[in-house]
Design brief:
Blueprint lengths: L4 H19 L8 E4 L2 E3 L1 H7 L12 E3 L6 E3 L6 H14 L4 H8 L5 H9 L7 E3 L1 H7 L1 H6 L18
Antiparallel strand pairs: 1-2, 1-5, 3-4
Length: about 160
């Protein structure tokens, strides 16, 4: 499966949301932020930023801040994580990055709720709390199949906050 950072961010967000609903636990450490094109996990965004708007062609790695040594992250082996990830890929993996952005922006979604609260300051980059994702995640399920708004976004469009 070929994927851009923009699409990866949305698929990671949807996987995180479904995992939160099923287990009550977060899938990823850290947090998601409300960026212009939807929810973004800043740590994973940074890990793949070097690919720009192109296809990601390498695995995520981590850098030891003391030694500056880079090592690849291990493969996921948790059966619950693999099951939820597989379900999201089977359900949403065929969608374009623009369609995934549209789905993340639906009315009542966690991203929309955070953006609406922050509209007075018009700042993107606001954190989307896990509790809000868990509470409002079902809004995405009700919106699948509606006409997309931003689907014209090309998969190779630069992905910036």
């Amino acid at each position: 499966m070929q994927i851009s950072n923009l699409a990866l961010q949305k698929l990671l967000y949807f996987t995180h949301g479904l995992f939160l609903q099923r287990t009550g636990e977060p899938l990823v450490s850290g947090y998601f932020e409300a960026w212009r094109y939807g929810p973004v996990h800043p740590g994973s965004y940074a890990a793949f930023k070097k690919y720009g708007a192109g296809i990601i062609c390498g695995r995520a790695s981590k850098i030891n801040p003391l030694t500056e040594q880079e090592t690849q992250l291990p493969a996921v082996r948790d059966k619950n994580v693999l099951a939820v990830t597989g379900q999201i890929i089977a359900t949403l993996g065929h969608m374009t990055a623009g369609q995934l952005v549209d789905l993340s922006h639906v009315a009542g979604s966690p991203w929309a709720a955070v953006v609406e609260c922050g509209e007075a300051t018009a700042n993107f980059g606001l954190r989307i709390p896990n509790e809000l994702i868990r509470e409002k995640f079902n809004q995405h399920k009700m919106q699948i199949g509606h006409a997309p708004r931003l689907s014209e976004i090309a998969d190779d469009e630069p992905f910036n906050p």
